[in-house]
Task: inverse folding
């Protein structure tokens, strides 16, 4: 694993591909077809590593895999007890869904990104947290204390919030943490930060019932995500850090929506540039050698990949250079993280054209610098 913390953040974004002319958008049904680029036999071999013996020592348990290229499903696999109709937990891939939901609210004039965030615990102008903005929260640069540990319950704010004393009102628990760094000075990935944003969204929409209706009517229904089910805590807050259930295909619909820049059925559902804001690197995390924007990760590869990522290896990846969406769902403990990264990189290579015997064709995509995000 590299450590690029001393390098400047990448500044260029790979252009997002549009839906091919005449290609139907997936709503109730979804067309399938062959890969547009690369080697499907090689992809079959890579997927067999994960699914032929499952669970296995390399990746542990793989539950679902869907690849979408050019707007069509080109590969699909399911593990033990899982089918195309099975819903799986999002874990932290829900954070990117929350970012998109906030984009919808911004377009509707319901939130202000740069005003002090409307959090009751921070309403006093003398409170050092008062100046935290929604934009700071989206970038995970609030300065709030929060330990995102999934193992040590004695020190983990995340486990305490999701399963301990904070579970009754997760946003109140997260917002009650002290400021330990100057606002916008340090990156600290925190599920509590997303839950605070979820409370802001829920409040702006008028409560749990209104929020549920808004997510359904403004996001899930237009995308055909008929199985998507967001969960709420006892205080009525959407747990946008961790709890959206859906099928692999519905998570892939969300990934395709992101790859298309917030456009669906040729209609712009999000404010212009909202997906670009999410995938543009603002921080670097040396613990996983990934960049972070506003609730989206990026490995900084040559394909311009940006990802929604979650606990135990959940991934919704949008890959602009290959017009590709990859969804992987499973149960892979943290010790399998290096193998999961290799698996994902191997999958992408299966969609790369072999140019060893000929010069690559010139295109607008290839003119973009290799180190895009």
Result:
């Amino acid at each position: 694993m590299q450590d690029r913390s001393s390098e400047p953040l990448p500044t260029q974004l790979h252009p997002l591909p549009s839906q091919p002319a005449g290609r139907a958008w997936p709503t109730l049904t979804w067309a399938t077809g062959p890969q547009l680029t690369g080697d499907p036999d090689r992809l079959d071999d890579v997927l067999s590593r994960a699914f032929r013996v499952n669970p296995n020592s390399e990746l542990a348990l793989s539950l679902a895999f869907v690849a979408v290229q050019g707007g069509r499903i080109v590969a699909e696999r399911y593990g033990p007890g899982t089918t195309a109709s099975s819903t799986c937990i999002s874990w932290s891939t829900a954070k990117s869904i929350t970012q998109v939901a906030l984009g919808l609210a911004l377009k509707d004039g319901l939130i202000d990104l740069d005003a002090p965030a409307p959090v009751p615990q921070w309403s006093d102008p003398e409170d050092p947290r008062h100046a935290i903005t929604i934009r700071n929260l989206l970038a995970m640069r609030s300065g709030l204390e929060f330990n995102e540990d999934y193992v040590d319950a004695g020190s983990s704010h995340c486990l305490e919030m999701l399963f301990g004393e904070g579970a009754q009102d997760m946003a109140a628990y997260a917002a009650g943490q002290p400021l330990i760094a100057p606002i916008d000075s340090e990156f600290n990935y925190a599920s509590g930060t997303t839950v605070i944003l979820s409370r802001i969204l829920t409040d702006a929409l008028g409560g749990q019932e209104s929020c549920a209706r808004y997510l359904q009517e403004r996001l899930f229904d237009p995308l055909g995500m008929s199985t998507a089910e967001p969960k709420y805590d006892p205080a009525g807050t959407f747990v946008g850090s961790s709890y959206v259930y859906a099928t692999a295909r519905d998570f892939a619909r969300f990934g395709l929506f992101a790859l298309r820049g917030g456009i669906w059925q040729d209609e712009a559902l999000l404010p212009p540039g909202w997906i670009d804001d999410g995938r543009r690197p603002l921080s670097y995390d040396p613990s996983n050698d990934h960049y972070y924007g506003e609730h989206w990760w990026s490995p900084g590869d040559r394909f311009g990949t940006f990802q929604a990522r979650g606990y135990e290896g959940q991934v919704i990846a949008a890959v602009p250079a290959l017009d590709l969406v990859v969804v992987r769902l499973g149960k892979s403990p943290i010790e399998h993280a290096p193998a999961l990264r290799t698996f994902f990189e191997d999958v992408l290579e299966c969609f790369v054209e072999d140019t060893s015997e000929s010069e690559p064709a010139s295109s607008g995509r290839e003119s973009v610098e290799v180190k895009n995000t």
